[in-house]
Design goal:
heterodimer; A: 184 residues; mainly alpha; globular; B: 227 residues; alpha+beta; four-stranded mixed beta sheet; elongated
């Protein structure tokens, strides 16, 4: 790795079972994970579910993290997968008989159900691999090499996805330079 | 030297990202000076990137952050480590204290009804300890009223029958059972619904089952492992 992982010390403590160290890692990454999930899923509530699921998976599988990638990269990969799982579950439960579905809604009742704004609409018009790739690149500032690790594809594939996603976003937002920052 | 063909997409992307080596960058700049189509592509790449960069980071609401800690408490691994410390958030503290209070009231009430002052202290100790442990064997979500002996209801005969089969409880999650079964089977686990409130998983570890159920809210469907 070219740079030392800033999370390394906390990760080592958490791997020894130090829950407080893991809570600090959660504090450090929570908003970026939430942004990633929210931009991918388009729903604040679903994003919170995905973040919760991702962090629990990370805690349960922490011993499998070997430090070959940065901890944040590993976490983003888990978060993207969790977001896809949440999306799949929503599609599945949408088909269930409402009277049978006893899911108590423990999520934030005051959260918006959907993100609004031109940018989010433009993002949601992108097919999934393109959406995640461009969010990782341009919202979270991940390098193409990191995104390749997160999405488990070749770096060239990532570049191709980001290229197409940016072009498509610009087309949907209008091609004026500087873009449309409206997002909520 | 003018280029006779358009640069590759990957080069245009690298140009926008300022990642092209000097010589290649000037070559491409020369091309852009005469190529309207490539200039337009570059403008779009900038616009798409800048729109996302201008979007602010979204903040995970504090209630959701709190939920993460509670979930880690509920499903987290029992790491037998000397450095293990438990993060006790204010909300969780209130929840635990409320559980303890309800358990004590129940115990006092039961003891009063039984007229047996001698058993009160001992039973109270058990209930308090149970509340403080947060019932780790159950996947949380138990309301305070379920914390005491009254929770041992017979509402679920199948679940009660299951208790005689040496099942290891993993937790209680939101149903319906067939949705829980579907979630478990998606992870390759051998699960079946055995009644309206019981799902049994065979030949799996509790950790695998917990991992398969992460993110599912707490509820009334008991999930247990049969060795």
């Amino acid at each position: 790795m070219p740079e030392r992982d800033p999370d390394e010390a906390l990760v080592r403590r958490a791997q020894r079972g130090d829950r407080l160290a893991f809570e600090r890692l959660v504090d450090r990454h929570q908003h970026r994970l939430y942004t990633l999930a929210a931009r991918v899923l388009g729903s604040p509530n679903d994003a919170a579910d995905a973040v919760q699921e991702a962090l629990l998976r990370a805690w349960l599988r922490l011993d499998r993290f070997r430090g070959e990638a940065r901890f944040s990269t590993w976490l983003y990969r888990i978060c993207v997968n969790a977001a896809h799982d949440v999306r799949d579950r929503r599609r599945e439960t949408a088909g269930l008989d409402a009277t049978e579905n006893e899911h108590p809604d423990v999520r934030d009742p005051f959260a918006e159900r959907e993100l609004s704004g031109d940018l989010q609409r433009a993002l949601e018009a992108l097919e999934e691999p393109y959406r995640s790739a461009v969010v990782l690149a341009d919202v979270l500032g991940c390098s193409y090499a990191e995104i390749a690790e997160i999405m488990e594809v070749a770096e060239g594939t990532v570049k191709s996805r980001v290229f197409r996603a940016r072009i498509e976003l610009a087309r949907r937002l209008g091609t004026r330079e500087g873009g449309d920052a409206s997002n909520r | 030297m003018m280029e006779t063909k358009h640069p590759a997409d990957v080069d245009l992307l690298a140009y926008v990202d300022d990642e092209l080596p000097g010589a290649r960058r000037s070559e491409l700049a020369d091309h852009l000076a005469t190529c309207e189509a490539c200039t337009e592509t570059i403008d779009r790449l900038h616009a798409g990137r800048d729109a996302l960069r201008a979007a602010p980071l979204m903040k995970l609401p504090p209630t959701m952050r709190e939920r993460v800690s509670m979930t880690l408490d509920r499903f987290g691994p029992e790491r037998a480590s000397p450095v293990r410390r438990t993060y006790v958030s204010p909300l969780r503290l209130v929840t635990v204290l409320a559980s303890v209070a309800v358990a004590l009231v129940l115990v006092v009430t039961i003891a009063d009804l039984a007229g047996d002052g001698g058993g009160e202290r001992e039973a109270g100790g058990d209930a308090t300890a149970q509340a403080e442990r947060g019932r780790p064997g159950e996947a949380g979500g138990a309301s305070p009223s379920e914390t005491g002996a009254a929770a041992e209801s017979a509402e679920d005969e199948a679940a009660a029958a299951g208790a005689t089969r040496a099942l290891a409880d993993v937790g209680r999650v939101a149903g319906p059972p067939r949705a829980v079964v579907a979630a478990l089977r998606r992870r390759g686990l051998d699960a079946d619904a055995e009644g309206p409130r019981l799902v049994v998983v065979r030949g799996a570890s509790e950790a695998d089952v917990r991992a398969a159920l992460t993110g599912r809210p707490a509820g009334r469907v008991r999930v247990a492992v049969e060795p």
